[in-house]
Design brief:
The chain has about 425 residues and is α/β, with parallel strands linked by helices. It folds into 2 domains: about 5-45 and about 205-270 and about 360-410, FAD/NAD(P)-binding domain (3-Layer(bba) Sandwich), CATH 3.50.50.60; about 55-195 and about 270-355, D-Amino Acid Oxidase, subunit A, domain 2 (D-Amino Acid Oxidase, Chain A, domain 2). The protein is about 35% helix and about 25% strand. It has helices at about 15-25, 40-45, 65-70, 85-100, 100-115, 120-130, 145-150, 155-160, 170-180, 200-215, 260-265, 325-340, 385-400; strands spanning about 5-10, 30-35, 50, 80, 135, 140-145, 165-170, 190, 195-200, 220, 225-230, 235-240, 245, 250, 270-280, 290-295, 300-305, 310-315, 350-355, 365, 375. The strands form 4 sheets. Strands 4, 6, 7, 8, 15, 16, 17, 18 and 19 form a 9-stranded mixed sheet that branches. A 6-stranded mixed sheet has the order 10-2-1-14-21-20, with helices on both faces. A 3-stranded antiparallel sheet has the order 3-9-5. Helix 1 (about 15-25) packs parallel to helix 10 (about 200-215), helix 1 packs parallel to helix 13 and helix 6 crosses helix 13. The longest helix has 17 residues, at about 385-400. The protein is globular, with a radius of gyration of 21 Å.
């Protein structure tokens, strides 16, 4: 490893904690700092999916034509806080460009390069953290109300199959056998064979963070607002209140809050935020054996330790606007159509900030300006999925070791 012995990771979500764990293995003395307690951001309440099959980007051929109709529905799969539109325009233009077919084909192959490593990278960490009974690799079931809607997904599914993803078609009868609690309204479906899920994403982060501390890591609660420079390099982080944390190596991995810090480090980046909503309810007799994706409704239902979580859709509105929990209630109402035994009694609504790049690829990159800085953010819907692999890739970059894949597609300056 390099002569530097100390590393500071900004961000204690699933990505930051994984980065910290692997840097420890590389011999660094690691401190993780976060404005909140570990796992209390997007990692707290996400859908719990290890979505290794999801190599198709969010922007696909034809997506742009659907956007006006979506925006007309205040509780549809995509909504926009209109006051935020001027700030979103540059992101939206890049998002549209990413949906051209030749770009989609390229992006899918670049996402697969990361996704193909997920289970191999997670398995030893899950074992070492004692979390094996909280992680399942059982596949996910995506269901369609008509053969027409299934055919509308042909390109998406074919794209994934051509990139090595195992997707198996199932009939109405097979759906009923696999998930007898679903309403008999689905004509067909597909099983995404290698999809996994966790019983509670928050507990997964806590388990990894506990392992990090047991191995000598330090967690510090602080909001980093600036940096101190020496010899042309950032050498210390400044917390709100004035405290300083000195480092040899720095990794910015604080999700949707990474944009400002990246800018201070000389790397402006088109990162923005997809606000995601969900509702988690006790089982109350409802049964669900695996993750179910209702493709026509753009919702995901996940069986978890504390109950069934129903969520999905996207709201573009930045980091400061108050949550609109009517969206969570609308999603849950769709969930009740899918799984009629769902009851909202004792339910909890939640909103999280997905840090999203317009081309659906994360930033996993060294700084083009400072050889002691790296970035790990922008994973969108795939933060939990890519956490362990991101840790491995960033550690290779920081240590100067060869990365196992070509890292060019994930550079922070690719735009």
């Amino acid at each position: 490893m390099s002569e530097a012995q100390t590393a500071l990771v900004i961000g204690a979500g699933i990505v930051g904690v994984n980065v910290g764990l692997v840097l420890q293995q590389q011999g660094f003395d690691v401190t993780i700092v976060d404005r909140n307690e570990p796992g209390m951001g997007t990692s707290f309440g996400n859908a719990g999916g290890l979505a290794v099959t999801e190599c198709a980007p969010i922007s696909m051929p034809g997506t742009l034509l659907k956007v006006p109709g979506w925006l007309m529905d205040p509780y549809g799969p995509l909504t926009l806080r209109w006051s935020y539109l001027p700030r979103m325009v540059p992101w939206l233009l890049r998002f549209a460009a990413a949906g051209r077919k030749h770009r989609v084909e390229q992006i899918a192959s670049e996402l697969v390069a990361i996704l193909d490593r997920v289970w191999d990278d997670y398995t030893p960490l899950i074992r070492d953290a004692g979390l094996a009974d909280a992680v399942f690799r059982e596949g996910a079931l995506a269901v369609y109300r008509s053969t027409q809607s299934r055919r509308a997904s042909d390109y998406n599914i074919d794209l994934r199959r051509r990139n090595g993803v195992r997707v198996t078609d199932v009939t109405r009868e097979q759906i009923a056998e696999m998930e007898p609690g679903l309403a008999p309204i689905f004509a067909c479906g597909v099983v995404e064979e290698d999809w996994g899920r966790v019983l509670d994403p928050y507990k997964i982060v806590l388990g990894f963070e506990k392992l990090f501390r047991e191995r000598g890591g330090i967690y510090q609660k602080a909001e980093i607002v600036d940096f101190i420079w020496r010899d042309g390099k950032p050498r210390a982080a400044v917390a709100r209140g004035g405290d300083q944390i000195v480092f040899d190596k720095l990794v910015v991995a604080c999700g949707a809050w990474s944009k400002n810090l990246a800018g201070k480090l000389g790397s402006p980046v088109p990162l923005d935020t997809e606000r995601g909503y969900n509702t988690t309810v006790p089982y109350h007799g409802a049964t669900l054996n695996r993750t179910v994706i209702s493709a026509d409704d753009s919702i995901v239902l996940t069986p978890m330790e504390m109950g069934i979580r129903v969520g999905g859709a996207v709201e573009l509105g930045g980091l400061t606007a108050a949550p609109n929990y009517k969206r969570a209630r609308a999603l849950f109402a769709k969930g009740q159509q899918v799984l009629p035994a769902l009851s909202d009694q004792g339910g909890t609504d939640w909103m999280g900030f997905r840090p999203s790049m317009p081309d659906s690829k994360p930033v996993i990159s060294t700084s083009p300006l400072h050889d002691n800085v790296a970035f790990a953010f922008g994973h969108g819907h795939l933060g939990l999925t890519m956490g362990a692999t991101t840790g491995q890739l960033v550690a290779a970059l920081i240590s100067g070791n060869p990365a196992p894949i070509d890292m060019t597609p994930y550079r922070i300056d690719r735009f």
